Every structure is written in C-alpha cells, then in structure tokens.
Amino acid sequence: MPVTDRAFLFGDGIYEVVFGRDGRFAFWELHMQRLARSAAEVELKVPLDSGQWLAVAERLWADAGCETGSLYLEVSRGVAPREHSFPERAEPTVVAFVKELKVATEGDGEAALAVLLPDQRWLRCDIKSVNLLPNVLARQAAKRQGGREAILVRDGLLTEGAATNLFLVRQGELWTHPLDQHILPGVTRHVVLEEARRLGIPIRLEAYPADELALVDEVFVTGTTSHVLAIGEILGHWRRSGPDPITARLRQAYLGRLEAETMGAPHSAQSAG
C-alpha cells in the first residue's frame, strides 16, 4: 500500500473482522451489511460485492491453510495527493488477510479484568473506521494496569469496551447501550441479543450509569474474536461476588450459533449446490 494512501494519511477507510473456521465465515451477511453501512456513512465506494468478498476470503483462507481464525477486510478511499477533501479520481484500496485464532469451546470461558476509562473517541463510533488511535490508547492504558479490556464512560454513562460491546446484568435484567453514534453496532452484540430474546431474558436497551456499578450482578463484553467474555472485576469499581448464570447461558447459546454458522461445506459450495 503506497504511503500516500488515505488510510495512512487520514485514517480514511473502513474495515470488518469476521470469525472463520474451515473456510466458513460466521454471520457473513451481517458483516457485509455493516461494511456497506459504514461505507455509505463516509461516502466511500466499496469495489466488491458480498459474493466477490467471499471469493477473496475463501482463497485467502485456503492459501493460509487456516483452520480457526479471523478474516480482516479493509477498504480505503485510495491513493491521492494529501488534501483533506475527497479526491475526485482515486480508486479504493482493498486489503484482506487472515489470522489464526484459538478455537472457542463451550467450557473455556474465563473472567477478565477490566479498567474504567473516559471515552475520548470521536462521536461517530457507529462507523467501523480504521481510525482507532483512541481505542489503542485506551487498551494500552488498561494493559498497563493489568486489564484485558477498557470499559469506556461518556458523560457518566457506560458506552462500550475499547474493542468490544458491553453488557451488564442487574436483578436478572440484561442492560446494553442502545444503538446510536456512541457505540459500534456489533455483530456479536446483535446475535447475543437475539439469543437473549429467545431465552426469555429481559433486555433493557439503555446506557447504564457508571456510578451504579456496585448494583450490577454480572458484566460481560462481546466481540468477533472475544465471543462472550465474562468480566470478573472492573478495577476499583466492581467485583463479581458469585457465579455468572446469565453470562454463561448467553455464552453457551452464542457458541452454539457460531458452531452452526461454521460447520459443514464452505458458503460458496453451499450456494453452488
């Protein structure tokens, strides 16, 4: 990628990360829909449609000999002179690669340490932009304190993790921030909410006050590569006092969906049949 690509110069690009196993990709159309939405929000032309992306993904997966891993897709506005306004004739740049990941299993859930930090990101967190420096700084600040994730606070309300969506359980009710410009519309978040509705777990789509963390019974975060990850402690603010029954049920349900999405023939073979 040339150094004059706008992804390098301005962070002018969007991306997706998709979980895959044996050439099958979980929740593919949800990821493609989110990629298209992000592109529309930043007026960026995506040169490949869902089927073309899938052909690229399957070829990369086969070439890498990957079993379980993640697929990274990125589209930038392309190579152009360094001017802040959109270039008139630049062609989009496409980047894709795969990364091996540990296989998720139903019984390997763990409780992670998280750190509470101010949400200093821009006000369009709903766009999956490559402009992730505030997220990087938050994760690094959490890492310095021994944390796996940073849980972010804006105007006294919990938003999400630096690279995850946030869920809390209070008196049997599942809380998560509503979809707006302050959080990313996570694919894993979407599936977990579907499973919560199927299981009859009450849902509250509302931003949770940070100063009421002591009243929370369970905390977990979700993401494409972290799946459903229980939080055991938010440093200096909250520590779980018992088991996480709702987190465990949702993790089991999500991993069941993930297995169903990634077992059997690759997507293109199914389409051809």
Briefly note the structural class of the backbone: alpha+beta
Largest sheet: 9 strands, mixed
Helix content: 25-40%
3D shape: globular
Number of helices: 7
- DSSP, total strands: 13
Architecture per CATH nomenclature, i.e. the level-2 architecture of the largest domain = Alpha-Beta Barrel
Determine and state the CATH class of the largest domain.
Alpha Beta
What's the pLDDT, averaged over the residues? Answer: 94
Low-confidence stretches: 269-273
Number of domain modules: 2
Computed over alpha carbons, the radius of gyration is 19 Å
Describe this structure in words.
With 273 residues, the chain is of the alpha+beta class. It has seven helices and 13 strands. It folds into two domains: 95 residues, D-amino Acid Aminotransferase, Chain A, domain 1 (2-Layer Sandwich); 149 residues, D-amino Acid Aminotransferase, subunit A, domain 2 (D-amino Acid Aminotransferase, Chain A, domain 2, Alpha-Beta Barrel), CATH 3.20.10.10. Strands 5, 6, 7, 8, 9, 10, 11, 12 and 13 form a nine-stranded mixed beta sheet that branches. Strands 2-1-3-4 form a four-stranded antiparallel beta sheet. It starts with 5 loop residues before the first helix and ends with a helix. α5 packs across α6. The radius of gyration is 19 Å and the shape is globular. The relative contact order is 0.16.
